[in-house]
Amino acid sequence: MGAFGTLVGAGGGFVLVPVLLLLYPDESPEQLTAISLFVVCVNAASGSVAYGLQRRIDYRSGWWFVAGTFPGAVAGAVVVGYVPRRLFDAIFAVVLSAVGVYLVVRRGNRGVVAPVRGRGVVRRTVRDGQGNTFVYAYHLWKGVLISTGVGFISSLLGIGGGIIHVPVMATVLHFPVHIATATSQFVLMFMAAEGTGVHFLQGVLGWDRALLQAVLLAAGAIPGAQVGAHLARRLHADMILRALALALILVAVRLGMKAGGL
To answer: Smaller CB count within 10 Å for the chain: N or C?
Structure first.
């Protein structure tokens, strides 16, 4: 989970939550998302260290996105307590399948991309540890607004949000995929911490069996995140997005069957 989640910048929650849903059919969505967000936070922190050493994190954009996630992450962590289990499974399946199908059917733009213009445009230049230079521009207000929505969905579903954030950053905000993946890990670290903090305050995640499970899962995710960050340097951007799309669709199908009682 840690390796693949970091490889695609998704944090691994989209893999962990379905596993928890299958292993603990009687647990509430609130309990399972609390465990997942704790693991996502630790996994993203480990991945952020690795990507930071590679110098592929756009920190200036990342801090703005972190600020944008706060209201959404808090709201999502609160709302999940009111969602019935079967409805939660169905929502999870729909979100995963929608993102996965979009990544499969979308046609990459191989031509020249028109310069981004208008209010709130910021331009970034990132030079990584291997000497690669990435130059791109995007509307800052779009990035912050998108991050608010991603923060809500991530806390609601306990998935970290990278499965949505990375594709949107790459396609809507025109981030290079490798920079989007690394920056997403940085944002996820804080996004998941916000949701986890709410669950601690609510008493959903306390000094009990749930926290022990989260700690044990997180311990396994830390080395996996380092492996995923290392592999990301060697894989082509399209391969990363295709791997993400395939994983999303497979998980969505399984959850959809479960929600339907199959």
So the answer is: C
Q: Is the pLDDT of residue 1 over 50?
A: no
Amino acid identity, residue 89? D
Helices assigned H by DSSP within 203-236 = 209-232
Q: Residue 232: its pLDDT value, please?
A: 57
The DSSP output letter for 116 is: P
pLDDT beyond 60 at 109:
no
15-38 per-position pLDDT tens digit: 677 677 767 777 788 888 888 888
Q: What is the pLDDT of residues 178-188, one digit of tens each?
A: 899 889 889 98
Residues sharing a CB contact under 8 Å with residue 12, sequence separation 6 or more, in sequence order: 1, 2, 4, 5, 6, 39, 40, 43, 160, 221, 224, 225
* For range 48-75, the mean pLDDT: 92
Tokens of 146: 């998108």
Q: What is the DSSP string of 189-204?
A: HHHHHHHHHHHHHHTS
Angle between helices 162-171 and 85-105 in degrees, nearest 10: 30
Domain boundaries, the chain: 2-106+120-259
Is-contact 224 11, C-beta < 8 A? no
pLDDT at 64 over 60: yes
Sign of the alpha-carbon dihedral angle for 224, 232, 45, 36: negative
Residues counted in the chain: 262
> 150-189 in b/e burial notation, b at 16+ Cβ within 10 A?
bbbbbbbbbbbbbbbbbbbbbbebbbbbbbbbbbbbbbbb
